[in-house]
Amino acid sequence: MAAGFKTVEPLEYYRRFLKENCRPDGRELGEFRTTTVNIGYISTADGSALVKLGNTTVICGVKAEFATPPTDAPDKGYIVPNVDLPPLCSSRFRAGPPGEEAQVTSQFIADVIENSQVIQKEDLCISPGKLAWVLYCDLICLDYDGNILDACTFALLAALKDVQLLEVTINEETALAEVNLKKKSYLNIGTHPVATSFAVFDDTLLLVDPTAEEEHLAAGTLTVVMDEKGRLCCLHKPGGSGLNGAKLQDCMSRAVTRHKEVKKLMEEVIKSMKPK
Amino acid sequence: MPGDHRRIRGPEESQPPQLYAACEDEAPAARDPTRLRPVYARAGLLSQAKGSAYLEAGGTKVLCAVSGPRQAEGGERGGGPAGGGSALAAALTAAALALADAGVEMYDLVVGCGLSLTPEPTPTWMLDPTRLEEEHAAAGLTVALMPVLNQVAGVLGSGEGAQTDSWADAVRLGLEGCQRLYPVLQQCLVRAARRRGAAAPP
């Protein structure tokens, strides 16, 4: 009976739960799904992480390569994120070049990296004007059940914390790079941006960490990215119904709490890892 | 890529740092040619796909998802990280497991196994090679078997060296490897079915 009602009137079905201040999967409106993170998952990458938010699964692999610094910024390296939403994560995606959602997510991640200054691009420079590191960050969604932005941001941060760069010296005589395969060092992570996403229902109710179904039924979505000092790094509101100032403030406070939860989880994971 | 507006732009070119490193040629360690690496198989782990399977053998990891049925497009989409030796064999097995998990009716499961031939002076066929062994190999072979029907589904090999009958022995060794792998996969499907039974709404 409930299943039939859900198919015919999904929004009404949801409203019944929201009236009681909870959701069909048993969560409260401000509750996140179980978050798990696995760091150092891919042995062939320089840094990797797997993040699960409920069913949503995203892996991030970081590969470090050499490149010539850009002419307009000779003392900076590159960070190139790329989000892939393959058909295997959900039946709504087709094989081929990045679709609209993948492009939006890639640009969002690029904005988060840029605004939060998670890594100083100057740290990636080896020899100004001649050699710099480029970090290719590939994020692949393996299972799409909503809230892809939070999962991607977390996976990227965890993978960057796992990256170890090889020691490089420039040979004075030959002017060529010499790489020492035995010596590696971790990246200098400046800030820890954490994303918190909300779905807006009926212009007033805000649901944290929406599932794919909730995203589909929502009137709009909002993503807030905070760092550990409570500074706003990025605000992503792609259209949808409007929000007043008070609601926005609520979202930001929730984002600050979420940041503490995520930071604690990541610190536990990193502490439990054996040194490479 | 010039003109590719769908991806974030990076540098025009980049090189992996390994090119600049002092070349250390690691030779693969000697080992029992008939050993199979321990395998971890899990079916039914993607919530959005009709059927899915994850297979891990040594460093090789393959994830396969089955969706559909859709109009004549072919119902299968593979994907996921690989690399670590015998990637094709692992992919074949994962694909068969995912199809079984989706409930597609098949005559039998297809199990894949890889082999590689070590170079001179003593060419021996090694079962289930690692990436390092594959890189140093003179020849490679992948066999696919349907264990219950005992029928060979496919054989793909390339390289040079060794007599023709040694290739026949290699195929036999590969088929044996497939048979040994089968109970693990059966167990994996049973567990997945139990999990699905437990999770199904009353």
Structure description:
The complex is a heterodimer of chains A (276) and B (202). Chain A is of the alpha+beta class and 276 residues long. Chain A has six helices and twelve strands. Chain A has helices at 2-8, 10-19, 100-116, 148-162, 212-217, 245-272, and strands at residues 35-39, 47-53, 56-67, 78-84, 125-127, 131-143, 164-170, 177-186, 194-201, 205-208, 220-226, 232-236. In chain A, strands 1, 2, 3, 4, 5 and 6 form a six-stranded mixed β-sheet that branches. Chain A has a four-stranded antiparallel β-sheet with strand order 10-9-11-12. Chain A has a two-stranded antiparallel ribbon with strand order 7-8. In chain A, helix 1 packs across helix 2 and helix 3 packs across helix 4 (148-162). The termini of chain A are far apart. Chain B has 202 residues and is α+β, with helices and mostly antiparallel strands. Chain B has three helices and eight strands, in the order E-E-E-E-H-E-E-H-E-E-H. In chain B, strand 2 and strand 3 form a beta hairpin. The longest helix of chain B has 36 residues, at 164-199. Classes of the chains: A alpha+beta (276), B alpha+beta (202).
Question: What brief labels describe this structure?
Answer:
A: six-stranded mixed beta sheet, four-stranded antiparallel beta sheet, 6 helices, 12 strands, 32% strand, B: 202 residues, alpha+beta, 3 helices, 25% strand, globular, Exosome component 6 (chain B), exosome (chain B), cytoplasm (chain B), nucleus (chain B), RNA-binding (chain B)
